[in-house]
Amino acid sequence: MKSEEDDESGETNMPKNQQAERDRDLSRALSGNVDGNFEKLIRVFQDRLYSFSLRLANNRADAEEIVQEGFVRAFRALKAYPSQRVEGIDLKPWLYRIVLNVFRTRIRKAQPRPFSCGVKPTLAKTEEAAAGPNPEEAAERVEIRKQLEQMVASLPERYRVPLVLRYVENIAYSEIKDILKQPEGTVKSNVHRGVQILRENFSKMNRRGKQ
């Protein structure tokens, strides 16, 4: 049987309208009592924020620290805001934006790590099993995935971050624009440009491989 915590954090199994209603209820609860409801906010969002941080930092320890610092910043902000402002916060893009800002601050102070597309080990094993007994095909897919990660890592941040949010985190453009504080048209344009650059780089790589 699932616990209440499992239900609260299980966004993938919850329709988007129910997620939105849950988040609005949580904002209202926080506006009345931050201390008493902040643990619930952590339960609801910690897995998604950790996943996002891991795909940016490509290091579990760094990702955990980024999320922890993000929650600290969020708590301090909620305690400082008037209750009316807290009630009006759209929590999901607000928290993603905080975590992204923590990552940006840290990355300015350290050498960037290779980007991870976030391919789960179980998914990789499933892909290899689906390929059958041919080890060459499996090895080729692994190599292509590594090359994709390197290509995404080389993208300028203005293309890389929205591309990750859209195609790795599967977040709607309407929410990405709130996370990045950009017009939706700009977000779509940057995602499109990022995909275009990846395709061009793949084409160049394939041409070199055939020479």
Keywords for this entry:
211 residues; mainly alpha; 80% helix; Rna Polymerase Sigma Factor, Chain: A; single chain; disordered N terminus
Briefly say what this structure is.
The protein is an all-alpha fold and 211 residues long. The chain is 80% helix and 0% strand.
Describe this structure in words.
This protein has helices at residues 4-9, 16-32, 34-57, 60-80, 83-87, 91-109, 121-130, 135-154, 157-168, 173-180, 184-210. The model is unreliable at 1-7 and 118-131 (pLDDT under 50). The longest helix is centred in the last third of the chain and has 27 residues, at 184-210. The chain has 211 residues and is mainly alpha-helical.
What shape does the CA trace take? elongated
Q: Just give the CATH class of the domain at 1-113.
A: Mainly Alpha
The percent range for strand residues is under 5%
CATH fold call of the domain at 1-113: Rna Polymerase Sigma Factor, Chain: A
Query: Which homologous superfamily in CATH is the superfamily of the domain at 1-113?
Result: RNA polymerase sigma factor, region 2, helix turn helix motif
User: Which CATH architecture of the domain at 1-113 would you pick?
Assistant: Orthogonal Bundle
**Class of secondary structure makeup:** mainly alpha
Q: Rg, please?
A: 19 Å
Number of helices: 11
State the helical fraction.
Answer: over 70%
Number of strands: 0
The main sheet comes to: none
Distance between the termini: 58 Å
- Order of secondary-structure elements: HHHHHHHHHHH
Are there runs of 5+ residues with pLDDT below 50, and where? 1-7, 118-131
Average pLDDT rating: 83
